[in-house]
Amino acid sequence: MGERKGVNKYYPPDFNPEKHGSLNRYHNSHPLRERARKLSQGILVIRFEMPYNIWCDGCKNHIGMGVRYNAEKKKVGNYYTTPIYRFRMKCHLCVNYIEMQTDPANCDYVIVSGAQRKEERWDMEANEQVLTTEHEKKEKLETDAMFRLEHGEADRRTLKKALPTLSHIQEAQNAWKDDFALNSTLRRHFRPMRTSRN
């Protein structure tokens, strides 16, 4: 593949490296070409892939996760030191514009305007999974001894309730732990059947 890539560039006779520096400056163009046409406004055109299923507000059509758009990417703020970017793209089925932005606090994307999210989110609490501790709760656990004691008691109750299930899972895993012994047993069982057929 690499040998087919065109790496040779045509240098016109009036090109002067001291004066122009690069071919891009000679041609008065940006290395990103069309993608950088709004760079002076702080907007870069990127290829954006829809992170989840949505419903367009303009045409009421479903837009599936993974559909790609040429989106205008712009920095709109910061969450601590992480930049928050806003993406603006036109629906491929109508004239409506969809705006989304990053949500670093929840590791997600938020729809600002032009669409509605199709609700398919996984509720960790409803499915009895371990929840991550929120920032405020973590700070309170570190500073407030009474809160830490109450929180520890609630954790112990949860553990006591989940202990039978956990021990059952542990026993099931231990039964299949030694796969070499299981394989040997199966081979010993099937070997006589295979030799009798031959």
TrEMBL record:
Biological processes per GO annotation: mRNA splicing, via spliceosome
GO-annotated cellular components: post-mRNA release spliceosomal complex; U2-type spliceosomal complex
Region (Disordered), start-end ranges: 1-26
Domain of life, per lineage: Eukaryota
PANTHER family cross-referenced by the UniProt entry: SPLICING FACTOR YJU2, SPLICING FACTOR YJU2B-RELATED
Family according to the record: Belongs to the CWC16 family.
Function noted in UniProt: May be involved in mRNA splicing.
Name recorded for this polypeptide: Probable splicing factor YJU2B
Organism of origin: Jaculus jaculus
